[in-house]
Amino acid sequence: MVQNVRNPGLSQVYAQLLTDAGGTSQIYVRDGSELAGTPIQQLAYAFPRGVLLGVVRPEGAGFRALLNPANDMRLQSGDRLAVLAPSYKDAAPPEQLGAEVELKERPAPRVARGLEPSGPCAAQRVCVLSRRTVRN
Predict the structure, then answer these.
(1) DSSP one-letter string for the chain
(2) Which residue ranges in the chain fall short of pLDDT 70?
(3) Residue 112: per-residue pLDDT
């Protein structure tokens, strides 16, 4: 809730991601096994109508979501690609890959003195999403 106050419009972004109103984009998870060995960096611009969010990797009896992975991470056999796209077809892995794109590192945002996280929760990131139904 605090994030919505600090970032006006954020609730509309969540609503757009979590609903299928008006043909908006959705998150699709597609098989990427044929791209094993490909660096994530090379897939950065491989989806003309979608955005690569990350990789879903088999782990034991389940899966592990690796969102916003490092540029040098390489796909492994069994990996699946998480893509935000308008349709399932637009989230399909590319048949051909272009040259590897050089992505510049972005510096971490600066934190005001005295506001640095501390304690047992300092190294944790939490994403809270909810869906609220409004009735007239």
Answers:
(1) -HHHHHSTTHHHHHHHHH--GGG--EEEEEE-GGGTT-BGGGGTT--TT-EEEEEEEEETTEEEEEES--TT-B--TT-EEEEEESSTGGGSPPSS--PPP-PPPPPPPP--TT----STTTT-------------
(2) 1, 16-23, 97-136
(3) 58
Q: Where are the domains of the chain?
A: 24-91
CB–CB of 93/48 below 8 Å?
A: no
Whole-model pTM?
Answer: 0.61
Instruction: Give me 110's structure tokens.
Output: 């600066």
What is the CATH architecture of 24-91? 2-Layer Sandwich (3.30)
Distance, CA of 75 to CA of 85 (rounded, Å): 20
Residue 112 CB neighbour total at 10 angstroms = 6
Residue 132 gets the label, from left (phi > 0), alpha (psi -120 to 50) or beta, of: beta
